[in-house]
């Protein structure tokens, strides 16, 4: 318990440094404030592809419910669970989902304002908007679905209760995962908006962002705070919301 608490404190201290590293990704982009906006996108904000992603995630989550307990048990019993490097990485994934993505998004926005760098400002704004919008969606579902967390009801992944998340609080707000939602919303919005404004950006950006988001999602199961089906649905909501936010602003221009 003491070691876990110490690792948590260490990650909390280095979170600003991780956020600064993410800020540096956008600092290195070419300024585009003198350029005109790319041509406005014509089409729906939420596409058929988005609906397919959400539908597939919902179907996948429903199927995973039957094996959620097995996945959770196997992860807890795995030798990797006691590996210091693995635990440190998973602690880092948790912190990336909250608060690093929030700090990084707000930091990009503020830095763009201070530097009069339009790319940085818009990328930061879109990421914050995506985190907030996806958080509202996820929060509403959490409250209505009322699923118990694996730490609360380890033997019963089918423990749902209508509106119980509203009545009984956090321990009954497992589905979907808020950390996974925020991490994928951030990655999706940054990737989409940065790609729209600076198509020549480095190709490694998206793999890094989505890799960190995936680490966050995995960490929630690893730490026994969510079932696998929770993080699948949360990841899909974040992914779709980030892209939809960028499309909405592009269509408004």
The CATH topology is given as: Vanadium-containing Chloroperoxidase, domain 1
Tell me the total number of β-strands: 0
Q: Label the overall shape.
A: globular
Low-confidence stretches: 23-36
> Per DSSP, what share of the residues sits in E-state strands of 2 or more residues?
under 5%
Structural class: mainly alpha
**N- and C-termini, Cα separation:** 52 Å
Whole-angstrom Rg: 19 Å
Query: What CATH architecture do you see?
Result: Up-down Bundle
CATH class: Mainly Alpha
Element string (H = helix, E = strand): HHHHHHHHH
How many domains is the backbone divided into? 1
Number of H/I helices: 9
Instruction: Give helix % range.
Output: over 70%
Q: What's the story with the biggest beta sheet?
A: none
Average predicted confidence as pLDDT: 87
Question: In a few lines, what is going on in this structure?
Answer:
The chain is 72% helix and 0% strand. By secondary structure, the protein is mostly helical.
List the helices and strands and how they pair.
Layout: H1 2-27, H2 48-64, H3 68-77, H4 84-115, H5 118-145, H6 164-168, H7 178-197, H8 205-222, H9 228-252
Helix pairs in contact: 1-4, 2-9, 4-5, 4-7, 4-8, 5-7, 5-9, 7-8, 7-9, 8-9
């Amino acid at each position: 318990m003491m070691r876990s608490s110490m690792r948590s404190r260490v990650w909390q201290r280095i979170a600003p440094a991780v956020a600064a590293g993410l800020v540096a990704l956008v600092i290195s982009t070419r300024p585009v404030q003198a350029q005109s906006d790319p041509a406005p996108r014509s089409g729906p904000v939420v596409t058929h592809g988005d609906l397919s992603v959400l539908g597939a995630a919902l179907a996948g989550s429903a199927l995973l419910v039957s094996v959620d307990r097995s996945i959770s048990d196997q992860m807890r019993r795995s030798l990797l669970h006691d590996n210091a490097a693995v635990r440190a990485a998973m602690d880092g994934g948790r912190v990336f989902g909250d608060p690093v993505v929030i700090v990084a998004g707000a930091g990009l926005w503020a830095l763009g304002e201070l530097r009069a760098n339009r790319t940085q400002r818009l990328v930061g704004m879109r990421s914050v908007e995506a985190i907030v919008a996806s958080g509202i969606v996820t929060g509403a579902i959490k409250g209505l679905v009322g699923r118990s967390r694996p730490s609360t009801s380890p033997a019963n992944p089918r423990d749902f209760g209508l509106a119980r998340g509203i009545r009984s609080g956090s321990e009954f707000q497992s589905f979907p995962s808020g950390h996974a939602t925020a991490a994928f919303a951030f990655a999706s919005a940054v990737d989409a908006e940065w790609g729209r404004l600076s198509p020549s950006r480095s190709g490694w950006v998206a793999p890094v962002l989505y890799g960190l988001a995936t680490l966050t999602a995995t960490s929630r199961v690893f730490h026994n705070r969510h079932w696998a089906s929770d993080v699948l649905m949360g990841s899909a909501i974040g992914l779709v919301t980030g892209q939809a936010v960028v499309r909405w602003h592009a269509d408004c221009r």
